[in-house]
Structures are given as structure tokens and as C-alpha cells.
Amino acid sequence: MSKRKSSKQRGFSGAGSSQKEAKGNQEGDLNTEPLIRPLDKHNQRLLDAVHPASWQNPEAADRYHLVVVGAGTAGLVAAAGAAGLGAKVALVERHLMGGDCLNFGCVPSKALISAARAWHQARSGGAIFGAPVPEPDATDDFAHVMERMRRLRADIGPHDGAQRFTELGIDVFLGSGRFVAEDAVEVDGQRLHFRRAVIATGGRAAVPPIPGIEDSGFLTNASIFELTSKPASLIVIGAGPIGCELAQAFARFGTAVTLVDRGQLLPREDPDAAEIVQRSLERDGVRLELNAQVKQVELTPEGQRKVQLERDGKSITVHGAELLLAAGRRPNVEGLGLEAAGVSFNPRGIQVDDTLRTSNSRIYAIGDVASPLQFTHVADAQARLVIRRALFPNLPFGGPKNSDLVVPWCTYTSPEIAHVGLYEADAEDRGIAVDTITVPLDATDRARLDGEGEGMLKIHVEKGKDRILGATLVAEHAGDLIAELTLAITAKVGLAQIAATIHPYPTQSEIVKRAADAWYRRKLTPSAKGWLERYFRWIR
Fold first, then answer.
1. How many C-beta atoms surround the C-beta of residue 132 within 10 A?
2. pLDDT tens-digit series, residues 365-376
3. pLDDT in tens, 431-446
4. Residue-wise DSSP of 103-167
């Protein structure tokens, strides 16, 4: 066996991250220290699971049915699924197993957002529910919030860890994997020959070419969860999902937050839905600087980040103790030897066909490195799709294609925005006439009783039919509620069947049934209503 070289870990006491350190952590450079910070007991437990310092790579088999490069969600699901079917599988990871989702994304961010909601409810409970309001001089404990996040992340870590996947019968290699041929990957001095391979190396935060950004020091999703003390002020560049979620969370913790974007807030979402979230952010104290170009960033002698903006020819200056970049993602394609493997790629990622196969017929690519929809659940779904195609390429029916996937998504602000299927503009672009049903969330008694009436459901159906084409839901728990509509689109269940389905009362899920009932009422045209009135007069 060959022993992996371990990196000496370094503790973390500061509140920021230099550009060099942030970049190193995002790209998983094993020569950049540390792998994760701060190195307290919780993060040490996490590292013991997802990148053990004493790990010994196994002796490579003569040949593998499947070699998976990257152990984020996509890679883990692909490796586990293939091994479960009896295939000989190797899994290669150069940084932290679990990828962004466990270490820098879904898990830590939702722990932070949940804490922020609890703080907000504690402060606002008096006005809404008549609860006691905390004393004005009551102190908070942001360090406890971050420690709780690290503890919960470490608790979840072993599920994605090296030991578990070894126990599943997978050869786990920790180190930088690089293609050296069309059918071989080299890692830690060993060559892994394969029949098929899957690239699942994910992505990282993009660093826009802003003058001064490289020297100013900034945070990304890979480093903001390393904070141990609450910043007094924070500038967030990018008003997409990540920027909005974290801007609102830190504002609820009491940080003075400025959210900057060159366009509108949540531009890919339904404008009515985005407007509801924008009002909520403003109520929480987030200062919005939209439609503004970032011209320069500099670090002041006092250690503040000074950001120069321009809007409509006017200069705007904002200051913050910390700066968070949330301005998009970049695929991790560097250093993989893709040229040697004959795999085509561009700045947007690895190019794949509708079966997720690359230009090398032996190799597939899934997840953020190849998909414009960069969600954990998409990575999971693509991994399941690829297992069948990679391991059983000669089956007459290859199963669903990537374009067949019905993908919901959610932005975890308060309230949340969840969407599935087509937007109205998408349907128009495809030449599909639609009817749109919009129901305010406070039409459900439960939302009003919960003090969560701000929101709506908007459903698009094919004109004259009950076939659901798409839906947008704004609610505190929209991500949980959108599953019913996702299933309806997937299974081709129309609004008529939803209207006939009993929903428990009182629940916020009734909003879907109310939309179906509204669709039914539309079917009662004036002529039909007139006919019924004549009928009832006749039988009276």
C-alpha cells in the first residue's frame, strides 16, 4: 500500500480569508493549508471522516468497471450505486469527500439559515404572537451558531466518508487524479485502468475580474463558514440564490449587509416571486444596490473593504468589514488531464450529450462540472442516470435522458422561492399557449395562523387543459411543498386529479388544491353557468 502524504493543519482565529487561501481551499490544492478551518474538535472529526490524515491508498486493481473522479454528491452516488450492483469501482478525491454540499454548501448554509430564522423569530415574536421580546441589551452568541454548524456537519460527515465507502467495497484513493490516457487515471503514483469513468469534480466560486479584488481579501462559500466571530458589516457581490440567502441570514444575525448586483435580484426567478423576497430582505435591513457595476475594490488602512460602484453614471461607495463573492460558479476542469483523455471542455464545463457522455465514449461527466443546473439533487439524479448507461451500455433501452429530468429548485430565503417546470416566458418561446392560475398564500388558513401569509402559488397549465407545465411557489417552506407539483408534472397528473385529492386541513399544502379548485372554477363559463341556472329553475 502507498501512504498518502498528509498536510499539516493550521488553526484559524481570524474572521476573514485571503484570496490565496480562499482559492486554494476552493480548488482543493493539497499543498495549500489548511483543508478546512478552524481546526477545532468538530472540524477534526469531519476531517477524520472525509480526508483522514493517516489514510493509505489501496493497491490498484488490474482494471475497474468504473473509476469515479470526484467524491461530491454526484461521485458518491455513482460510486455507491455501481458498487451495489457488483461492479469493481475506484473513487478518487483530492480534497474533502462530500464535496461542496457537505463541506461548503447545503449542510453548513442551511444550519446557518435555520439559526438566523430562529433569531429573527425570537426578535419578531412579540409583535406577531404577543411573546416576550428580548431585552435591548441582551447579548447574542454568533460563535455558538457556528460551532453548532460545525458539530452537525461533523455528525453527517461519516456518511460521505472514506471508511464508509471502503466498507461498500469501493477502492478509495485520496489524492489528485489525472487522466493519462483515454482509459486510465493516475493518482498517487498508481495507474487506474477502466472500462468506464465518470468525472464529477464539481465547481467553485468564480472570482470576477474586478480591479483590486485579488489584493483586498474576500470570502466565498468555501470560506465564509470558517468565521468564528460575527462581522459588523458585510458586502455581498451577487444577488443570486447564494448571495440572497447569506445576505438575509447575516442581516438577521445583526450584521449591516449591503447586497450588490449589476442586475436585478434573483433574475432567473418569476419577477413577482423575486419582488416578494426583495421586500423581505429590505425589511430585514439589507441595503440593496442593484443595477450597479462594481468598478473597484480596495482594502483601507483600517482593514475595511471599500467598494466603488457606478449606477446611471453616478459613483457610489460602500464599506464593509468583510466582502463575500457570490457572483457565479466555475467548473473544476483544471489539472485533470482532459486533453490526454480526449474529453472536450470549455469555460462552462465539460461538454456532454443528452446521455451525459463526453467526447470520449468511455467517459461520462455529471454534476456541476457539466450541468448548467448546479444543484445537489440534480447531481444525484444524473449519477443514477449514468450508472445504467455506463455499466450496461448494450441494453436495448438506455432509460431516461438528461433532458427528461423534471428538476425542481429552491432558494432558501425567507420566504423561500421554489420552482419546477417552465416559466410563462419559456412556454411562450416554445409556442405553447398557457393559462396561469395565481393564488395568494394567505388564502390558506394555516399560513395566516402561522404568521406566514406573504407568498403565492403561480401555476402554468396548457391553455384549455389541466396539464401542468410549470409552477412557482413563494412560502416559508416552499422547498418542501413543491414536491407535489414536481410529482404531478413527472407523472402527468393534471389539476383535475389534484382537485379530487384530499389535502389535510389546516396545512399550507392546501395552496395546491386551492389552485386546482380555481382552475375548475374557470371552466364554469358564462354559457355553462346560464345552462345550469336554467336546469335548476326547471327542477325546482
1. 8
2. 999 999 999 999
3. 999 999 999 999 999 9
4. HTSHHHHHHHHHHHHHHHHHHHHHHHH-PPPPPTTPPP-HHHHHHHHHHHHHHHGGGGSHHHHHH
Q: How many CA atoms lie within 13 A of 322 on its CB side?
A: 27
**What is the rounded CA–CA span in Å between residue 97 and residue 107?**
13
- 35 and 47 Cβ atoms separated by less than 8 Å: yes
- Bin 76: left if φ > 0, else alpha if -120 < ψ < 50, else beta: alpha
CB 131 within 8 A of CB 211: no
The length of the chain is 540
d(CA 341, CA 467): 44
pLDDT 10s digits, 123-135: 887 677 777 777 7
How far apart, in whole angstroms, are the C-alpha atoms of residue 474 and residue 464?
25
CA dist., res. 332 & res. 345, Å (int): 11
Residues 328 and 247: beta-carbon distance below 8 Å = no
Answer yes or no: are the C-beta atoms of 458 and 437 closer than 8 Å.
yes
Percentage of the chain exceeding pLDDT 90: 84
**Other residues' Cβ atoms within 10 Å of the Cβ of residue 436:** 14
pLDDT > 70: what percent of the chain? 92
d(CA 182, CA 141): 53
277: CB partners within 8 A, 6+ apart = 244, 265, 266, 269, 411, 413, 415, 417, 474
Burial class from Cβ neighbours inside 10 Å (0-12, 13-18, 19+) for residue 297 reads buried
Q: Which residue, 399, 349, 405, 351, is CA-closest to 381?
A: 405
- Residue-wise pLDDT tens digits, 28-74: 444 455 789 999 999 999 999 999 999 999 999 999 999 999 999 99
User: Cα dihedral angle (262, 266, 272, 273), rounded to 10 degrees?
Assistant: -160
Q: Is it the case that residue 540 has pLDDT exceeding 60? A: yes
CA count, 13 A, side-chain hemisphere, 486 = 18
Are 233 and 255 contacting, i.e. CB atoms less than 8 angstroms apart? Answer: yes
**Residue 414 region by backbone torsions, left for phi larger than 0, else alpha for psi between -120 and 50, else beta:** beta
Supply the DSSP string of 468-531, one letter for each residue.
EEEEEEEETTHHHHHHHHHHHHHTT--HHHHHTS---SS-TTHHHHHHHHHHHHHHS-HHHHHH
Distances (CA, A) of 273 to 287, 411, 438, 475: 19, 11, 11, 10
Q: Which set of grid coordinates corresponds to residue 495?
A: 389539476
C-alpha to C-alpha distance for 273 and 447, rounded to whole angstroms: 17
Backbone angles phi, psi at 439, to 5 degrees: -125, 125
Tell the residue number behind the cell numbers 445576505, with chain if given: 247
CA 103 and chain centroid, separation = 12
Question: pLDDT at position 398, please?
Answer: 67
Residue linked to cell 449591516: 256
Which residues lie below 8 Å from residue 315, measured CB to CB, with a gap of 6+? 295, 308, 309
| Partner residues linked to 93 by β-bridges | 174
Q: Could you read off the pLDDT of 499-515 as tens digits, one per residue?
A: 999 999 999 999 999 99
